[in-house]
């Protein structure tokens, strides 16, 4: 950080949602540190540049698909922080970097966005639902075996546009936090896209991806700037998402594992519930536990999920 300029550089992807999340961070930081300014640098990730790469197939190349270039910029000292959707971050943080802050979590839920009224029950037999998330697709298939689940790529506005255009898709599933950060009121049960009214239904039974709804600030370990970012850390959110991400680590998986997990504060410390579908043909496994620390509760839940 330059003492002369009194400013820091934050890296972000260029999607509408990433920019909205970066704005949330910048405004919170500048309110906490009057006189310090944040300048934004847009960085194109592999996931942005290669829009045809299938997200539903876990590959070595796909690890950190939306985060790797931001981390590389951090390690080259080109930026002072990177702002991520926490659910996009691999569970292993590169040497020299640290999650300096986890901002207060938004809604963790998933929404069915459909051309048809009536939510999930209102989808016609054989309806095509677009999702590149194994978690969402496999959980949805347990509720409606007749649906056709196909991959869909694109940022939130482009996926909404694909549903609004009659033809390829009847519906998709999106994180409510993303829609809300883009200015959509999810409480009204509908939204208009390109002149088409799409219905919204909260899928209360669908556990979110680990870290869903949380914004992470990644920075270099041990630097003064990193200490400044840590003021924004929300301890409750940080403990809960740590537990969720540790389950993912203990199971040996990445972002494309069909795992749903949600942790909340409880009198015992942390209450964590999770569901796991090892393969498309395997039965769903469910687990829950309470424990004082993220590591303890994550291990209890992971042990249950790994039991035959």
> Residue ranges: pLDDT <50 for 5 or more in a row?
55-62
Shape: globular
Task: Give the helices and strands as they follow along the chain.
Answer: EHEHHEEEHEHEHEHEEEHHEEEH
Structure annotation, total helices: 10
What is the total number of structural domains?
3
Largest sheet properties: 6 strands, mixed
Within the largest sheet, what's the order of strands? 7-6-8-5-10-9
What's the mean pLDDT score? 91
CATH superfamily of the largest domain: Periplasmic binding protein-like II
In short:
The chain is an alpha/beta fold. Helix content is 30%, strand content 26%.
How are the secondary structure elements laid out?
Layout: E1 7-12, H1 16-32, E2 37-42, H2 46-49, H3 68-75, E3 81-85, E4 97-102, E5 110-114, H4 119-122, E6 128-130, H5 134-143, E7 148-150, H6 156-164, E8 171-175, H7 176-181, E9 190-193, E10 196-202, E11 215-220, H8 224-229, H9 235-250, E12 259-266, E13 269-276, E14 285-291, H10 294-306
Parallel strand pairs: 1-2, 1-3, 6-7, 6-8
Antiparallel strand pairs: 3-11, 4-11, 5-8, 5-10, 9-10, 12-13, 13-14
Helix pairs in contact: 9-10
